[in-house]
Amino acid sequence: MIGYVACECLIYDAQSLKEKRAVLQRIMTRLKQKYNISVAEIDYQDMWQRTKLGIVAITSNRMTTERELQRALEMIDSFPEIERTVTTFEWF
């Protein structure tokens, strides 16, 4: 089962693209290290305080995939410098 999550996020304290990318790089690295997922910035690359992340997980059943994606979203929520706004799930 393939699960895909697109989540838009706000980074309020970023005053430049360099600061935004530093925050995103730290978050994406930790997500990749801790969970069996792929993650990338998929939109708003040229905006300082806004981003859209795409997260994909592939496992043998939907429950495991959904659990992995939910854990990744919980980790994103644990970072104080980023706020998750719109989140959509898709299944393939």
Automatic annotation (TrEMBL):
User: Can you tell which superkingdom this protein's organism belongs to?
Assistant: Bacteria
TM regions (residue ranges): none
Q: Which chain positions lie within coiled-coil regions?
A: none
Per its UniProt record, what Gene3D superfamilies does this chain match? TT1725-like (3.30.70.1120)
Family matches, as Pfam families: DUF503 (PF04456)
- This chain's protein is named DUF503 domain-containing protein
**What is the organism of origin for this protein?**
Thermaerobacillus caldiproteolyticus
